[in-house]
Specification:
Layout (H helix, E strand, L loop, with lengths): L3 E3 L3 E3 L4 E8 L4 E5 L7 E2 L2 H12 L8
Antiparallel strand pairs: 1-3, 2-3, 3-4, 4-5
Length: 64
């Protein structure tokens, strides 16, 4: 797998639940929980964009 460049983790609950987003050198977005750093979820740039836009519109609020 290409090198991954990680952003700072996004944490809640005093740092117990952290999500980290990064991307490979070829631009593939990757997500992981910092408590399980070897379990990676990959998507496409458009897939990540669609997810973020849906979250901004409140379409995922029922999952919380």
């Amino acid at each position: 797998m290409p090198e991954i460049r990680w952003q700072e983790p996004l944490c809640a609950n005093g740092g117990n639940a952290c999500l980290q987003i990064g991307h490979t050198t070829d631009g593939t977005p990757i997500l992981r929980e910092t408590s399980a750093p070897h379990e990676l979820v990959t998507t496409t740039p458009q897939g990540l964009r669609n997810f973020i836009e849906a979250a901004k519109r409140g379409e995922l609020d029922h999952l919380l």
